[in-house]
Design a protein that fits this description.
two-stranded antiparallel ribbon, 3 domains, 6 strands, 183 residues, alpha+beta
Length: 183
Amino acid sequence: MTKREDLSPKICPICNTAFIIKPKEKPSQFLRRKYCGNPCKMKGVTNGNRGKKAHNNQQMPRTCIWCGKTKMVAPAYSDRKYCDVKCMQRHYASGIQRGENHWHWMGGITEDKGRDSLYPGYKEWRREVYGRDGFKCVNCGCNKSGSLQAHHIVPVCVNKSLLLDIDNGLTLCIDCHKKVHYG
């Protein structure tokens, strides 16, 4: 076992300054230490590794389907379609994958586009029904925002002419609306 007093100073290979054992450092730690401090240690560790790749790192070409840029990447990333997230976002935002070009396209099977776009004036009808009922459920008095729904007394499938008639509407909360429809 070596004693603290027997240890001779070492020379740092980065800054060429002599360094001695620290007050709270064990002799075994000092013998393993190569650099005078953390800044020199970081320079020494990164100097030898700069720009090198692992010995088993095989590179494969990957071409971005949006910008056409080719990049060499690890095999695990070679099946990705884009060079980065920005290219992917630009591709999706361009509208190129909408409608028939979208991967989930099933031939335009939906017939209903939704009441707001299908019937002009539907949003206004809903607001007027809510306003008439004081923005409260007529059954239980719930006035929680986001839980109110406009209900047609006479269903639209029975009489389409009453679709935008304010007297054909009631303000109900989600729970009361379910009770009206499903009992």
